Amino acid sequence: MQKRYFLSTLTLALLASYAGGVCAQEKFKIGLILPMTGPFASTGKQIEAAARLYIAQNGDTVGGKKVELIVKDDTSAPDVTKRIAQELVVNEKVNVLAGFGLTPLAMATAPLATQSKTPMVVMAAATSSITQASPYVVRTSFTLPQAAVAMADWAPNNGIKKVVTLVSDYGPGIDAEKFFKDRMLFNGAQVLDTLRVPMRNPDFAPFLQKVRDLKPDAVFVFVPSGAGAALMKQFSERGMDKAGIKLIGTGDITDDDILNSMGDVANGVVTSHHYSASHNSPLNKKFVAAFEKANAGLRPNFMAVGGYDGMRVIYEAAKTTKGGNGEALLNAMKGQVFESPRGPMFIDAQTRDVVHNIYIRKVEKVGGQLFNQEFDTLKDVKDPGKSK
Amino acid sequence: MSVDNTLLRSTRWQAGELIFWSFAFIAPWLLAPHALIINEIAIVALFAVSLDLVLGYTGIVSLGHAAFLGFGAYTAALFAKHMCPDPLLGLAVGIGAATLLGAACSLSIMRGSDLTRLMVTLGTALILLELANKYSDLTGGADGLQGVIMGPLLGKFEFDLIGQTSAWYSLTVLFILFVLARRLVHAPLGATLKAVRDNRLRAMAIGIPVTARLAVVYTVAAGIAGAAGALMAQTTGFASLDVFALDRSADVMLMLAIGGVGWLYGGIAGAVAFKLMYDVIANITPQYWTFWIGLFLVVLVLVGRERLIRPWTWFSAEAKEGTS
Amino acid sequence: MLTLLFDGVAYGMLLFILAVGLCVTMGLMNFINLAHGAFAMLGGYVTVALMQRHGVPFLVCLPLAFLASALTGMVLERTLYRPMYKKPHLDQVLFSIGLAFMAVASADFLMGSQQQIMQLPDWLRGRTELFPDTPFVLGMGHYRLFIIAVCAALTVALQYVLSATRFGSRLRASVDDPRAASGLGINVNVVFAATFAVGSGLAGLGGALGAEVLGLDPTFPLKFMVYFLIVVAVGGTTSITGPLLAALLLGIADVAGKYYIPKLGAFIVYALMIAILIWHPQGLFVRQGGKS
Lengths: 388, 324, 292
Known about the structure:
The complex is a heterotrimer of chains A (388), B (324) and C (292). Chain B is mainly alpha-helical.
């Protein structure tokens, strides 16, 4: 008996809380779907902070409408992302979807964007094929091939002729491996082996041991941001630097978020990436200062800049279309050219993907803190994954 | 009241049940903006009912029930992608595949203590996860299986954006399989299951073929879980590795524990309560909702399910042990 | 190859220290405590916080991590866990998962969601190589040597306590049959409380030691719970040597699997576990006379 009452009272009580109903006003709604819990929560945190910073700096009215930022946690589960996106589109009638911390999350939502004609701004996920999954996808983060190819161009000219690749076994990792390997071979270098580390991996030791046994000049690494620290520590613990093996990779392994706490083991690591918190431009200095001030000293990383620029793209498109939506809003996003904290960038009108500079950086101690110091620049790198 | 009559009474449909099911079917129309979450609740409720058969009625502690959910999901998704996008056919294929898997796996849960079974079932689910990851050319690996476009249901009803078709589809499948499960547990077979759960040795002593019963119920439950998985893949158009993960099995066990085991509506009640609670809390605090759910669980167990819904008993004398 | 073995042994011993508390709790109180990982995480975070914010040296942090987790365990046992002993297993699972959730969210809130990075003292950072340039090269990271040393010492101590002290025999009696034990005048409640405290303390110590090797972030309890459960299931809950051997087996299998067959690395571990459990459902190493 009680069990039946329990069911009905609970259901009715909770449904009553929904009876608030939907009050549609003239608002410009942005649905920001991020992994706020789970292993990639730091991505969600950085992007949300950056988005809010942008709104704080640029006002919450755009194109004559009030901006409403709706932030949702998808716990890094693609079916949850899709459901939340669907609810945002159908119930909240958002003008644009944004966020997407991982490739599967973006891929799951892409068909929805096409079906509902809602522009989708990808601020974090980095696999090449995402922008091809739907004509409504615009990306402001970066792609792994961009960073990987840049490194594969730099390495052979700097004494690295034999390399082993070590990547996490998922979309961006496989992208990084493929493009790095192809470009290295093209440049006349050797790739001794390609190792893939499963995503749910507590221990890098066996993989690094295998690298050591192969005796390359360098090991090229890609792991999602957060796992880089563990990898680097294992790297030095295994005595790989003393055995003459250099550590190179994309900037994900020297993520600004945790770079400073990595300690001396990170010193001297060379990476290629599109953003460093120490990038020497007035806009970036302003961005970093404002970000740190608003977030208790947290340093912004490349995820934050993806979120910040994503908001910029959305705001400018909203201004042009006076708070519009659908195809008009999407077209206003394509082809935007502007200065970002990372440097100059633009959204390619054809591929809807980001084109920006890729910097080669080295980790150095500046003013007592570790930073990725840029020392070489490859300008206006398009995503190689599409130039076929 | 003779024994036959009492037993027969429990098989009849109570008024409350009829009201509940009518409400459930009107809901996607009445609460159209929430059709999506209704769909999700229906799927998860079906999964919980299947676990209840195994856990509540037969006493098999399983932390790997998601193995069947995932297997049904991937089979249905692959079938729709490569062979035929008809939803009902895909559902049948998903159920069939999961049933076969269940029959095979039932061999592994025969022996050992609760902990053994817990680990073996968990291991099975994780092995399937690793296999799905390895054969990423087929399954899409960590990125998930995309490009699953479903045909219209029964040739007429498209899977629309609002999600009403999905909701009604899932609710219908839930209802049909629920009725099946209900028949099962109220039949003599169900009574033998409860006997096995309560005291296996005694059940064996009075001649109940325990291993055969375990195999049968595990296989049937696997099939039902496979149906839930197929529904999930079809209504979201997507299948990814986390459908095998420990989280899924753990979540459904939580729902069952919240709603109450050994009572088919327990799975449904738990699913509704858990999902709605999660949704409401996650809206308020997107980052720290796990804390409040955890707190709710701890309080629920300490206070006891029956007392929780009667606040006047919270501060009275000793907690009654074993009433929950 | 010897290096691999060495790594596997280090990993296994770490797992053992982390999981031994869980084994004893389950064997003794028949309580499935899925929040065990939370005590480990507490030890890890205490160490990181003390080292980073107060500059406490690493060696001092280790006993402090043990104490912090042990005290927390003792308090929680008296207040929250004790009413749960009589409840059905499902409720215990629910309860401990709830606690684990709360711990995860609290850690996220208090310490942030990123990976915590520990700065080891210099004397732990080196590496020694025996027989270099031979197929039998044995490369030993000093930190892993340290882990093996500490864990071996703890194992010996635990085994000694269990088999040669009065408390140990009381503990074994309570594991075998609590009713008979209390009938003989053993204060089973005190035994429970002390064991739970020590088990949690060991988990905390393991968390502190493991933060360097396994990583430390708020999802730690849930991530590693599976491995702990494997150690307990395969090793059995009635002895110390059982879980030790199970943990070593698991550590070596995991490391070797990932080296030789990277794509299927974790698969090997699970398949091995299922095979062992089907063959020996009570666990590989069960003391005769213990209860199932």
